[in-house]
Structures are given as C-alpha cells and as structure tokens.
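Sample pair:
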Amino acid sequence: MSEKVSYYDEGSETVLGHIEQALTFLENNKGSHGLILIKFGDWNDSLTAIGKEGRGESVWISIAYAEALRQMSELSQYLEDNNRKSDFEMRRKTISDAVNNNAWVFKML
C-alpha cells in the first residue's frame, strides 16, 4: 500500500493517491448543472471537443464518477478510514442528485 508509482509527467504517488487525485480533478471540474465537464473528449468520440469552451457536461462521466466514489467508499470502509468514507459518500450523493435532477427530468412542451 505504500509503494509509489510514477506519474506520466513527473512525481510519484501510491495507487490510492493516483485514484484520489483523479477523483479530485473530477470533483473540481463540474459545470453549471453540477455534472462533470466533458473537457475535450467523452466516451463517444463524436463528442470530441464538445466541451472545449468549458460548458459541456457529461451524464455518462458523472455516473461513472458516482460509481467510482461508491467503490472508494467501500475500500475506505475496508481500510477503516471513516473520514475518507464519509467524504466519498457525500460527494457521491451530490453527483447522484445532480444527475437525477438534471438528466432524467421529463418536461412537457
């Protein structure tokens, strides 16, 4: 658990540190609806550059982020790290609420 793995560009961190940094990046890059910003690409290559102006949000990335937070919460419980577990659960609720409130709403015309 303490073994360090190099980053592509510079520095190193544990695997857990790599995961936490990725999740923190996603947490800090949300759009106006609270969903994760697409940036320059999404799972669907036809959406490449849709977020280049910093406004495009992805439901799919937001759902994947919520699942990653669920798994990290479980890992934190296993590692007996209640502070991290609580943080991951809070973040998961926030992103899940954003998806449910903004992506699945049916509106009559």
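The chain has a mean pLDDT of 88.
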